[in-house]
Amino acid sequence: AQTVTQSQPEMSVQEAETVTLSCTYDTSESDYYLFWYKQPPSRQMILVIRQEAYKQQNATENRFSVNFQKAAKSFSLKISDSQLGDAAMYFCAYRTPNAGGTSYGKLTFGQGTILTVHP
Amino acid sequence: DTAVSQTPKYLVTQMGNDKSIKCEQNLGHDTMYWYKQDSKKFLKIMFSYNNKELIINETVPNRFSPKSPDKAHLNLHINSLELGDSAVYFCASSHRFRSAFGSGTRLTVV
After folding, report:
1. Cβ–Cβ < 8 Å for B47, B35
2. pLDDT tens digits, one per residue of A49-83
3. Which residues of B touch A32 (CB under 8 A)?
């Protein structure tokens, strides 16, 4: 079974600084997807960034980028120029690959990291 | 229009009652899910339906019964509610690598 581990229960960063959230996972599959989700106090699950395992290039979305190390099964999220609105719980998630062209791969989540941004 | 909508957003009920949570998605996704987020914020899959067919049932008590009348709807019925059922329940849908979540239903059993 796949597992996802976030070893940092809490992290803090100063506004405008950079912070990195860690995530490791365990799988025997070669094709899968990895995600970072943000959950603010409103509890809405917001997709931050997605990485396909077959792509060597690290995904980036504006101030958010990942460091994907497939052999090490590591998937960290870097937030640059941190803003007050980045404060939230962040979840790393693994998705099993598609089967038969459908998408019933479930998401397996890490324990979450609470990010605090100080002004 | 909300992509994945679930109702109600809040539900407070007494132990032993039966309650339902409804979910609808207008994204045309072929797969829908129920996830449970416990008091420690841990998110775990409960059920998954693909084209109205149950494909994932993750060791959930049989007091929980999902129903999918069509591809756009997935409801969750819970019988004989217990204190430990208190949690936030998220509905989600997906197609290929894209997923969308509802805003969650906070269930409190007293």
Report:
1. no
2. 999 999 989 999 999 999 999 999 999 999 999 99
3. none
